[in-house]
Hints:
Blueprint: E1 11-16, E2 19-24, H1 34-39, H2 42-53, H3 62-69, E3 80-83, E4 88-91, H4 92-111, E5 125-128, H5 143-154, H6 156-168, E6 172-175, H7 182-190, E7 194-199, E8 202-207, E9 209-212, E10 226-229, H8 232-239, E11 244-247, E12 251-257, H9 266-280, E13 286-290, H10 292-295, H11 299-307, H12 309-312, E14 316-318, H13 323-331, H14 336-348, E15 364-369, E16 376-378, E17 386-388, H15 392-401, E18 419-424, E19 427-432
Parallel strand pairs: 4-5, 4-9, 5-6, 9-10, 12-13, 12-15, 13-14
Antiparallel strand pairs: 1-2, 3-11, 7-8, 16-17, 18-19
Helix pairs in contact: 2-3, 4-6, 4-8
Amino acid sequence: MKTISNPLNTLSSLVIGEQKYSFHALDKLTGMTLPQLEKLPFVIRLLLENMLVHCDGKKVNKEDVLNLASWEPEEQDRPLVKFSPGRVIMQDFTGIPVLNDLAALRSALARHGIDPAQAEPLIPVDVVVDHSIQVDFTGIPDALQRNQDLEMQRNRERYLFLKWAQQAFKQVRVIPPGSGIIHQVNLETLGEVVITSLWEQGELLQAETLVGTDSHTTMINGLGVMGWGVGGIEALAAMLGQPLEFPAPDVFSLELTGKLPEGVTPTDLALTIVQLLRKTGVVNTFVEVIGSGSQQLSLADRAMIANMTPETGATMIFFPVDETMLDYLHLTGRTDDQIERVAAYLHAQHLFLTSDAPQPIYSRKLTLDLSAIEPSLAGPKRPQDRIILSQVKDNFEKSLTRSKAEGGYGIPEHERQARVQVEVNGNQVEIGHGTLALAAITSCTNTSNP
Length: 450
């Protein structure tokens, strides 16, 4: 068991219920006053806390922490962030190759006469099996069971490997097939918001952070948890204790005002935000959502918006923790002790968003009036291309002959009226360009929003 490193003398204690915890207080950092701390965006505070926890003079030194603590919204030479996520999450599609690398590392150790058990992830790893099921049966009472039985047969070798990995590696947890989509499971079950770890001095509290091997890992940002998608090599490096290094980001604020009109859906809102951010140019930035309009959104709505982050080019679309998030933890069955710990710690660490809190200073401010959003659709090809509902027919007809380079389909004019006969449920049906069809499409964007 490790000793808590405390080179900057930030270690403090906090009693929640009858339990005493330790934590690295941001407001005790050398030269940091509370007004200065409250000027920092929440995402910078989270990165700062993460580096404080891992400040050991080796991977992270005091200068690294102090440089980030002096973050300015418009500085040219950004300090280097050394980010050590608290958890890695993977689906089976990308997780199996990563675990295979760990297994190969164990084999190499064994061949050199070294205990293979020394190759072990240093942080928790969750593998959610959700990318293997196919729809072979539909429209019958036992369709789900039949499809799952086929899934187990087809993927027997892969699943046996995952079962071995869960037993072989102490830090690996596998969520079995049929449990749900990875980001939904992460949001509704796995996400803890605040985590505890055991040290010689007792239990240490810190905000939960993670990386995932899926670009839409950012859905967890809707729960106030810092996390984003990475490649398999970065995920493996994080598992083995190597910090992810990158320049401190620009942080844009997205202030939401007003209220969504009746009949306008959260999907319309998500598409509008994607369009706005792409037009603005937010590649590699962190976007922090604030404003009275944000407070009116349900957590499921926030998760939808956060999920669409990759389509904007940003690293995260982050929603700071507030009362809505605590309500969601109750709704999804988190324990009262956990919820009390989350609320008490984040308030003490100045990571809880309240209506009377001073507004941080951002690299750039964006504003969106929710009352001005109109019903719309995505497409016709890319989710980031939003079309006002009233313009869908005209846009579709023009896209048929528009060149592929311009986002169209490049269909010659003489083929626009082509028709074909197909059989649907025993009936002959004629379809052509523009025929409406209903398909079973699974998208992680709105699975958590009934």
